[in-house]
Amino acid sequence: MIQIIPSISIINGKLTRLKQGDYKSETVYKDSPIDIAKQFEEYGIKKIHIVDLDGALEGSIVNYHILSAISAYTELDIDFGGGVSTDGEISKAYESGATSITASSVAVNNKELFASWLMSYGREKVTLGADVKQGKIVVKGWQKNTNTDLYDHLDYYYLRGIKYVKSTDVEKDGCQEGPNFAMYENLVKKFPHIHFLASGGVRSVDDIKRLEDLGVKGVIFGRAYYEGNLTLKDIESLVK
Q1: For the segment 157-204, what is each residue's pLDDT rounded down to a tens digit?
Q2: Whole-number Å distance between alpha carbons of 5 and 225
Q3: For the chain, what are the domain ranges?
Q4: CATH 3.20.20.70: does it fit domain 3-235?
Q5: Separation between Cα atoms, residue 53 and residue 168, nearest integer Å
Q6: pTM over 0.90
């Protein structure tokens, strides 16, 4: 069964969604991140993905307090991303309640360090964020383009034992137009032993089921829920 992972994105301590990673297109929601996390837990969710959007931009974690609070008030497994770029940052994330981390920029800028985390912390606790725009990796909260090809990037870490990869087609993110199904189909075929987490563009239960049929192991969604296209009842039915 595909794993259902809601995303909680944070700017200035508030629940915020962007469109295609554009910080000028933010939508701030009135619900507190802690209350939303508790709602997800009540409806059967076991794991959430927290994105520190401030941290992604700064290059170091900013919203530790949100991570700590959600960890304190729920029993959820928490995957945390955004600004995890040093050994000190990854340790602080775990100390604040993260059960796993997702890192993107460091995996491009300091490959040896990221690869060492797979050994130090274990493959179950470190996820590679491999987000793309037109086939090339983007980093620093999707604000910086690189010349790194997605498949070359994955191949490098595949040979070093990576197990979990979150990949987002940035041009699909927040647009409610559906995920890049062709990309995920190709990724699963080329790297069958990687557990891919699809993110970006998810609109509905049908999208999630189609991703599952393609062999994707997990789906991360945000706007579809916050805009009412995916309900708590939908989420409960998917988890069951």
Answers
A1: 999 999 999 999 887 665 567 899 999 999 999 999 999 999 988 989
A2: 11
A3: 3-235
A4: yes
A5: 15
A6: yes
